[in-house]
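Appendix B. Worked example

We walk through a single record from start to finish. Start with the input: the chain for CoA pyrophosphatase, Bradyrhizobium agreste, length 223.
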Amino acid sequence: MNKPILKNGPVVIGAADFFARSRARLGFDVPPGLYDPNIIPASGDPGTDKMLEIIAREQPVRPAAVLIAVVDHPEPTILLTQRSAHLNDHAGQIAFPGGKIDATDASPLDAALREAEEEVGLSRDFVEPLGYLDLYGTAFGFRILPTVAKVRPGFSLSINHSEVDDAFEVPLSFLMNPVNHQVHSKEFRGTPRSYYAMPFAERYIWGATAGMLRVLYERIYSS
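Next comes the structure step. The output line below is what the pipeline stores for this chain.
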């Protein structure tokens, strides 16, 4: 594996500041690229952009939504899951609660809240949505629209083991510290592309989940 590439300096994470910045910088406009294959989500990496262009030509768009649930502890955390080992897609990987957007979902926000309830039993009564993050494309044709939300502590979870093996929290201060943002590379059909990894204890956070966390950092703290 490559050594971490350190970009930008560490940030001081306070719950009030994070939520205030999120409310100011995010909104609920749904990007047309969530459904339109002709609009390619920008990744900031030339190799990934090329991959997404190829995927858009070869596969149907798969709209999806996830919940970036930031728990309002004195030291805030983000709720993550470990996907069940028997799943066909991304088995055993670290993920946000979420999944594909169904025709019956009123919005991507509604899909993210529904999936969080179905996967880990997080009641939407504890969730205050703050806005959508940037659209994120993957090599499997998913177009993922993350909802950033403030979650009130005191909730109880009920794990749906047909989808998720575990749910756990990681300090926001760790995930928003770019010192912990490792940049690795792999090839897609002969073209190098980069991806992020954020190992935390025994959990290996990488790929789309780490990529969306990096986007969160850039939107909330980098500008």
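Two observations about the output. Strands lie at 62-71, 77-83, 94-95, 98-100, 127-132, 136-137, 142-151, 164-171, 182-188, 191-197. Confidence is low (pLDDT under 50) at residues 1-9.
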